[in-house]
């Protein structure tokens, strides 16, 4: 009997020993599955947290509040500031474009579809070279705007496309302001064109109250001859020739653009005289702002918008004075 009992105990112990490795394997598998599930749960929590981009704000009275932050990306757009128009052959006009958002870091590129009608510089200077029509395109990145410019023989030449003259479209803001003087005695407002800028642009200048007693841009041509400038066209006045070329002034109905290439004493004196005619009370401040400018800047003197454009790659610097 004793031998039988011992035999049974031995058999039971042997079975128990055979089962133990199986349970160990099962427990290991369960542990691995538990670790995997925990890891996946943590990963999902991290993803949800990063995608929400929330900001926690602590309120001493209300506890912790969560504010969801939403960032909207503004699409880039470009708009040429004048409509399609006709221009007399030989004239130069200055065109601008408004780019939004204003902090767009891509440069503005100008292009003519036909150089036989007009050429355009990257500063926005359009020179009419012949009769006919061509497209002027302004491009920033992958967005563009375009207008038609038609070259005509003389001011009263009929447009093939019934386009208005450049003088009409560029001075329309001033005409509207003059014809719509307030009946209540309040000073009238004038809308300014967008600021001058080589290869980059900003939003159009805000309306300003014109209080200056200086000459308007369209009156400046009458005095430039006496200051040493000579006319090369209807609206272009050059100072010096050949190696003595120092700069030039382009006069438009609503803006005077002073280009400075060489800082000679004579030309600096002539430019200051021009500024004195435009800004008789604050021309010295305009000149001081120009000589001290390290980057492009815009300011207001005597109620008139003034834009300083610094020279790039050895080119012209500019002083732009709006009516």
UniProtKB/TrEMBL annotation:
- Low complexity compositional bias: what residue ranges? 191-204
Location of the region described as Disordered in the Swiss-Prot/TrEMBL record:
158-204
Family matches, as InterPro entries: Big_2, Invasin/intimin_cell_adhesion
Question: Could you tell me which Pfam families the record lists for this protein?
Answer: Big_2
Biased composition regions of type Polar residues, renumbered to the chain: 158-169
- What are the BIG2 domain coordinates in residue numbering? 74-150
As recorded in UniProt, coiled-coil segments are none
Question: What name does UniProt use for this protein?
Answer: BIG2 domain-containing protein
Source organism of the structure:
Bacteroides pectinophilus CAG:437
């Amino acid at each position: 009997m004793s031998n039988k009992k011992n035999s049974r105990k031995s058999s039971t112990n042997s079975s128990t020993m055979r089962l133990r490795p199986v349970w160990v394997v099962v427990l290991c598998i369960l542990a691995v599955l538990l670790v995997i599930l925990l890891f996946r749960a943590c990963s999902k929590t991290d993803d949800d947290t990063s995608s929400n981009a929330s900001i926690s704000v602590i309120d001493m009275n209300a506890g912790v509040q969560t504010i969801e932050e939403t960032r909207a990306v503004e699409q880039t757009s470009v708009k040429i500031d004048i409509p399609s128009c006709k221009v007399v052959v030989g004239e130069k006009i200055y065109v601008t474009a408004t780019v939004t958002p204003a902090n767009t870091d891509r440069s503005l590129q100008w292009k003519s579809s036909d150089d036989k009608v007009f050429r355009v510089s990257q500063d926005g200077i359009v020179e009419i070279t012949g009769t006919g029509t061509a497209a002027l395109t302004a491009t920033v990145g992958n967005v563009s705007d375009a207008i038609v410019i038609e070259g005509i023989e003389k001011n009263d030449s009929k447009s093939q496309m019934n386009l208005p003259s450049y003088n009409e479209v560029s001075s329309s803001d001033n005409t509207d302001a003059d014809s719509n003087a307030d009946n209540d005695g309040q000073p009238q407002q004038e809308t300014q064109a967008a600021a001058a800028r080589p290869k980059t642009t900003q939003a159009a200048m805000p309306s300003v109250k014109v209080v200056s007693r200086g000459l308007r841009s369209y009156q400046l041509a009458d005095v430039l001859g006496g200051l040493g400038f000579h006319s090369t066209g209807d609206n272009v006045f050059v100072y010096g020739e050949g190696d003595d070329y120092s700069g030039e002034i382009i006069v438009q109905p609503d803006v005077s653009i002073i280009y400075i290439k060489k800082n000679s004493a004579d030309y600096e004196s002539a430019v200051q005289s021009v500024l004195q005619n435009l800004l008789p009370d604050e021309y010295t401040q305009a000149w001081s702002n120009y000589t001290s400018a390290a980057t492009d800047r815009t300011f207001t003197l005597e109620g008139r918008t003034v834009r300083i454009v610094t020279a790039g790659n050895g080119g012209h610097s500019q002083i732009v004075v709006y009516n």
